[in-house]
């Protein structure tokens, strides 16, 4: 079954790819991206599902753990195939929704347990099909540095390195007379050797904002979604900002946001943290449980915002590791909505990305109490976007979604409302054509959180 909501003219496709193909490798010529995800003849597509919590759980909360199940690419493309991930999947270590990563070719799976008694423990698996995930190599626990709920991402460096980041609970600091000074936590950045399961480097430091910003009560609440720049010498780390009321010392929820910020540190030393600030976006840049920034073929980093007062943006960080404020991509403007919120996204190559989002006026599910999610195809070159033609439902919830498989020009996503069956869908990133793949069996309260 094919869906085609994008009626693109040939010259429009050419224009959309012109800028982003100036420095493509041979893999990129076959639909590959800077992460090396060229098309493979054969690979596993691993589907992940999150289980509803058992004690007073809410449908879609994912607090009961995570199952994974691998399917051949050929079977994933076949709408006549049916797979029951929640009945037959492999339970990965994690008290709550796991934070999952896979190798570019899908043959290796990585997990750092999130929460529980083994929170922070890294494990690597060989993917063997179905529920066959064989642990390989050693294990290492990073919880003493990154906490038991670590936020981490795999760098696009040939599956060599993961980076975990953490900020201790920020504390209000006052002078001897009780006058408010600032709110700060201690940040930690850790690099993890994925090949040998070893901690390569770790650094901790306070990262102050400007004196004026701190006096107003602004502070870094969380770090997440690190990405390695094209030169391989800097990590760019997203931030989630919050604010203290200097008069009361209490947290404020309604305040004027600063411009979007990121932390830049030297790599691989992790030294010299500095802050860069956008004048285009005013939201957080931390994402949630998936990648939130990518290096494109032009050598620049593209990064999404959340909780942005003007709706979500995709920002550009140039090769000098500074925000390029001449680049403006507003999802509100591109889609003709207000209050858009990018829940997660994936750069697919040639200036094209796919974005899970919600927006003002989207229906709220009576099952999960969450706003309905949608998927859009975004053209960063022309600053345009269009909703992908999928079977939408009020219970479709993608906030915890983590994995998109980019295989040449094909992008694999799982689509199923909370507690309902769904399918794998394959989207051609160039044409926008959507093909229905294998059926996925669901269970009440559970939801799918990605393809890897």
UniProtKB/TrEMBL annotation:
UniProtKB keywords: Signal
Q: Where is the signal peptide?
A: 1-25
Protein name as it appears in the record: DUF4374 domain-containing protein
Provide the species name: Gaetbulibacter jejuensis
User: What high-level taxonomic lineage is stated for the organism?
Assistant: Bacteria, Pseudomonadati, Bacteroidota, Flavobacteriia, Flavobacteriales
